[in-house]
Amino acid sequence: xxxPVITIDGPSGSGKGTVASLLSMRLGWNLLxxxxxxxxxxxxxxxxxxxxxxxxLLRVLATHLDVQFLPAEAExxxxxxxxxxxxxxxxxSEYVGAGASxxxxxxxxxxxxxxxxxxxxxxxxxxxDGRDMGTVVFxxxxxxxxxxxxxxxxxxxxxxxxxxxxxxVTLGSxxxxxxxxxARDTQxxxxxxxxxxxAIQLDSTVLSIEQxxxxxxxxxxxxx
Length: 224
Ligand code: C5P
Fold this sequence. Notes:
ATP binds at residues 10-18. InterPro entries: Cytidylate_kin (IPR003136), Cytidylate_kinase_dom (IPR011994), P-loop_NTPase (IPR027417). By secondary structure, the protein is an alpha/beta fold. 48% of the residues lie in helices and 15% in strands. The structure holds cytidine-5'-monophosphate.
């Protein structure tokens, strides 16, 4: 029997990562944070001095990327390892995020990461979050969610997250970054950010994380 998949796609700051993580724990299913793969690739490229414009070298790097996702334990979210080093926090920086968005624009990189993403599909099931989970990577998913939030709200959330660790950051510059990244992610020719035709759209500007999770669990119950 092939494992069922729930996909959660949307822009960064929509809350999809948190929702996906909570949902996977609630259901006891596996979790794929696909954005982390692009972030890991960008970080590895930076560590090895590989130019983000070099599609062929990035493809090779993506094929051989030495990464590990250690499952969440109790209240801790999953730990992410690159070449044996814990990079869980490092990959969340604005710098790595911007690099991720650049490497993600290369078709050869996306197809190199496809098999790796399919490998996460194991029983009893998978919750996958990203930009193209429902459209490209798992088009046969049993439930597809597209989670949005206004750019202003996403900038505000990011600001609250970052202000402790990064005192230089301003709300205005974050809003600017978010708009640029949205434009790059929605306008690229390969796997642009857009809802699958059969996706359920939820807006977390007006819904709390608990409410979003509740709505998704209702949909899961209907399908069971
Ligand atoms: O979701 P997250 O912010 O971690 O993703 C980082 C970057 O990786 C995004 O800006 C996007 O360009 C890229 N990405 C993607 N496809 C995915 C997940 C992430 O292109 N499925």
